[in-house]
User: Which sequence fits this backbone?
């Protein structure tokens, strides 16, 4: 689970946001844990189990710096689950946290964020640590106790003090024989 | 609850049917009990409670002559709950019994069938007896035991043998100073 | 389900009653439907599912002539589930309908009523018709809708008018080559 | 939540243990977090909600050093909830973690451990930190997510490195005008 070995979360690709005055990026959220959940408004398991769990997470961690984000990852019945339907859904189900519409890609049923995270379906969730690494991902809804425990662990992790060291080669980012993925945290720093 | 005093159910007004090869009318169903349920695909109580109850009713009374009918009575977020969305919903939620789209009326948010039955919202249900009378109606979801008991009572009621007496005046239908609503049961006799 | 073919319910054998001023017998209840449920206070399925269902039945059929009866059929952990424990259980769980302690039999783990009805374990239930016949029995908890429907059917059955015919041979009770179990209903008539 | 301000948990007073080869004391468990839950076998909320939650906690934190302990705090219907009944209950409900019978006190309905912790009834729970302090206590069952989060926080707390310092005055333990209860935590200080 340490930041040196856990994979970094890819960036979100969103065509339209709800419940937020401005678009969100994981890069800009570096330093805070993120609970990312993906759903479709006509997915029975999402509506019956995942969304209610997200609402409990919203409530219980309201006073922490956890950021909850939903992504509407439509990969079937596209015309039946347009942003107009999503907007009414969010209103009726009283979901408060930001929700983005996963960016559609020409010629693909599966939208971009879903592809980047390699998600298998809905509902899925990804817990992202303060350092931007993927701490846990799940397809389906997991037990509340385990979810609460994992989020608490993510919250309790200290933010590593990031020394503003000059990197010798921004583009290559290969040092001492090791090549790092260009980290979004530098953009956010 | 006797047929002489209970109000007759008005006829359905439907613009599009799903899960049935041909349109249904209550008139043609006279002689069979009908469990009519109304819903909207973005109504949380419908999805969480009413639709699962309808599925239990479908299963438990599968070998009886009960007719289950759903009516999609959209009275808000109209563009978010089009027939395209309804069709995908029925597919995802595995609803087997016939569902009709309540007929929209120019200048009214509330569709026609919903108006005729005087329904207050969704989910609602109406239990219709073999003689076409309204035996029970409810706004919200009622206890399974009570619902099962009422349907069983409706099923156990014998269809009164209707003697094919010539009515003096089919159109007027006023006899002995009393005027009856032209009853569809005569068509079914 | 007709009274001529369904087996007659055997009589209860009870060592102690709760929630009733006087002992009950099925013979004396002839003419009324009876919902008989058996349980043990340390049976998880009884406590979690069967007892709450019995309470829903008590409430929903409160205005009918259905008689609900519980039988505490202890067949294991006998010293752990004494009548003292049962009494406190009934108090804590607010069970209102009569409950009898199934009569223990010397040399048998299984008490007498449980043996007579051939019950396989707890929770079990037996629905007894107005004529004393067993309409349905179940090991485990069944769906509320089905339970409600069956009780409603039992309630809607007319009590057959019992002609006071003289029986040729009370003890033998064999007529026209057929031998009937001596019916308790004659005692109750 | 720091050990310097949170009250220390008092010691358990138990007359009989189940599910453990040897009696447990909180003193001997110092260094590990403890989830202490109290219940009665005839308490409906305990059986329906608290015990299942304890079983989820047992399962989800199985690979951590959390110690789950149950205390049977009978404060009513004493003869109905003897250790014999408790033993059968633990068998039927498959509770694996240690359970102690709260020590009865002559002339008091409320047993000793329950008094020491000032518990208001059942079900109650107390989360005890690695340093022996009470991190959280609750009367009734709390949300799984919050429970999971609190236990994770207790687990993530580092055990303070125990310096083998000689204490100047074990008996008095008064320093700078403040007198501490002779605490097992001094070993951990």
Assistant:
């Amino acid at each position: 689970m340490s930041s040196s070995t856990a994979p970094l979360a890819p960036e979100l690709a969103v065509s339209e946001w709800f419940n937020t005055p401005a678009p969100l990026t994981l890069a800009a959220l570096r330093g805070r844990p993120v609970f990312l959940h993906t759903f479709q408004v006509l997915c029975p398991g999402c509506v019956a189990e995942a969304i209610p769990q997200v609402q409990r997470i919203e409530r219980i961690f309201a006073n922490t710096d956890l950021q909850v984000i939903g992504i509407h990852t439509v990969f079937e019945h596209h015309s039946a689950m347009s942003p107009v339907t999503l907007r009414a859904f969010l209103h009726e189900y009283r979901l408060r946290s930001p929700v983005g519409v996963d960016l559609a890609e020409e010629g693909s049923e599966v939208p971009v964020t879903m592809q980047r995270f390699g998600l298998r379906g809905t509902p899925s969730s990804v817990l992202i640590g303060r350092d931007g690494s993927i701490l846990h991902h799940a397809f389906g809804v997991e037990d509340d106790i385990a979810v609460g425990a994992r989020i608490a662990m993510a919250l309790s992790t200290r933010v590593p003090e990031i020394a503003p060291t000059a990197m010798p080669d921004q583009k290559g980012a290969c040092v001492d024989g090791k090549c790092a993925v260009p980290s979004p945290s530098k953009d956010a720093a």
Notes: Residues 10 and 185 of chain C are 12 Å apart (CA to CA).
